[in-house]
Amino acid sequence: METKTKNNHIGRKISRIRELRGMKQETLAEELGISQQAVSNIENSEKVDDLKLEEIAKALGVTTDAIKNFSEESVLNIISNSFHDNSVLNGVLYNPTFNPIDKLVEAYEENKKLYERLLQAEKEKVAYLEKLVK
């Protein structure tokens, strides 16, 4: 059985999903146990055999339905919604659960304690050396 729906170019969808996953043709080829040229041919094909599509979906870490129903519009909607959310900073979800000033004060206090311990250790060394000299 062949996978084909009107105006759907399965090969292009595979190519876009592969690119969005940051995967090269060579990597996909290795996963599938085929040549890079074979992957290129698949990506240029309007339809792909269902068994091959299942293998490709598994290698890409998606379902066959995700490939069949993939659309650039849905990806763009997800991306644009993510970047218009006020809790997103440079594309990273940013909802701190702590007060940064408290963390800074905490680090300062920890640094102060460390310095005091170091100073005490030096005083003990000096006292020990003075004892040895006498």
Automatic annotation (TrEMBL):
Query: Sorted alphabetically, which keywords does the UniProt record give?
Result: Coiled coil, DNA-binding
Tell me which positions the record assigns to the signal sequence.
none
InterPro entries, per database record: Cro/C1-type_HTH, Lambda_DNA-bd_dom_sf
* One Pfam short name: HTH_3
Name the Gene3D superfamilies on file: lambda repressor-like DNA-binding domains
Q: Which residues form the HTH cro/C1-type domain?
A: 14-67
User: What's the domain of life for this entry?
Assistant: Bacteria
Question: Does Coiled coil count among this protein's keywords?
Answer: yes
Which GO molecular-function terms appear in the entry?
A: DNA binding
Q: Which residues form a coiled coil?
A: 101-131
PANTHER family, A to Z: HELIX-TURN-HELIX DOMAIN PROTEIN (PTHR46558:SF15), TRACRIPTIONAL REGULATORY PROTEIN-RELATED-RELATED (PTHR46558)
Q: What is this protein called?
A: DNA-binding transcriptional regulator, XRE-family HTH domain
